[in-house]
């Protein structure tokens, strides 16, 4: 029962579309009408407002972390409910009920859950993400590299429950980035900060 409750709690928290709300509050319209059409920080950056993109990144990561910590407090830090809360928050961001299940790609939320699962792994995958993104100038390449490493790092340091949750999130990250992967192969993927027409 704990697992069901924490997963549902995580999903509802993850479903909050911070990118959409922030851009609308700034008077810049619907972020889904531009770029990739999703609600994440990378697409918010295409509005030209780095401050809004940073706020979106922090809030999207924060909702993942908050879901995991809340589950920990409710269950006396039982790993499986915490892992399911993180996976639920990630799923909620990607497929939010409030937006007819059309959300973001979940990378920031994944990072937030990773820090809450085990801060050591969180730091390592954040470094991998930044290094890969800085080297390639493709945000998606950084996200994919970090996601690929995360389950192994959790298995080594964070325990089986978090590794299983990370494997689920990694699989969904790759699925959500299938268009990006194709554009990377064709070298047509937009660089970081570059505007992209829908």
TrEMBL record:
SMART domains: G3P_acyltransf. The chain crosses the membrane at residues 6-31, 80-99, 111-132, 144-175. One of its GO terms (biological process) is phospholipid biosynthetic process. Keywords: Acyltransferase, Cell membrane, Lipid biosynthesis, Lipid metabolism, Membrane, Phospholipid biosynthesis, Phospholipid metabolism, Transferase, Transmembrane, Transmembrane helix. It is a multi-pass membrane protein. GO terms for molecular function: acyl-phosphate glycerol-3-phosphate acyltransferase activity. Pfam families: G3P_acyltransf. The keyword Acyltransferase applies. It is an enzyme of class 2 (transferase). InterPro entries: G3P_acylTferase_PlsY (IPR003811). The keyword Thylakoid does not apply. It is found in: Cell membrane. Pathway: Lipid metabolism; phospholipid metabolism. It catalyses: an acyl phosphate + sn-glycerol 3-phosphate = a 1-acyl-sn-glycero-3-phosphate + phosphate. Its EC number is 2.3.1.275. GO terms for cellular component: plasma membrane. Probably interacts with PlsX. Belongs to the PlsY family. Catalyzes the transfer of an acyl group from acyl-phosphate (acyl-PO(4)) to glycerol-3-phosphate (G3P) to form lysophosphatidic acid (LPA). This enzyme utilizes acyl-phosphate as fatty acyl donor, but not acyl-CoA or acyl-ACP. This is Glycerol-3-phosphate acyltransferase. It comes from Parvularcula dongshanensis.
């Amino acid at each position: 029962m704990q697992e069901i409750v924490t997963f549902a709690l995580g999903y509802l928290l993850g479903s909050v579309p911070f990118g959409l709300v922030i851009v609308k509050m700034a008077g810049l319209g619907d972020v889904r009408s531009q770029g990739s059409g999703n609600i994440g920080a990378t697409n918010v950056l295409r509005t030209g407002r780095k401050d809004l993109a940073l706020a979106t990144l922090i809030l999207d990561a924060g909702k993942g972390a908050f879901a995991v910590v809340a589950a920990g407090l409710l269950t006396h830090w039982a790993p499986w409910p915490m892992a399911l809360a993180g996976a639920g928050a990630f799923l909620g961001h990607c497929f939010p009920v409030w937006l007819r299940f059309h959300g973001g790609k979940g990378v920031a939320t994944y990072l937030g859950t990773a820090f809450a699962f085990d801060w050591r792994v969180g730091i390592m995958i954040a470094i991998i993400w930044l290094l890969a993104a800085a080297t390639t100038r493709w945000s998606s390449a950084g996200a994919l590299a970090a996601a690929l490493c995360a389950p192994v790092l959790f298995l080594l340091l964070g325990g089986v429950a978090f590794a299983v949750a990370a494997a689920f999130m990694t699989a969904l990250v790759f699925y959500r980035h299938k268009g990006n992967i194709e554009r990377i192969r064709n070298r047509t993927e937009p660089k970081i900060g570059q505007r992209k027409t829908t």
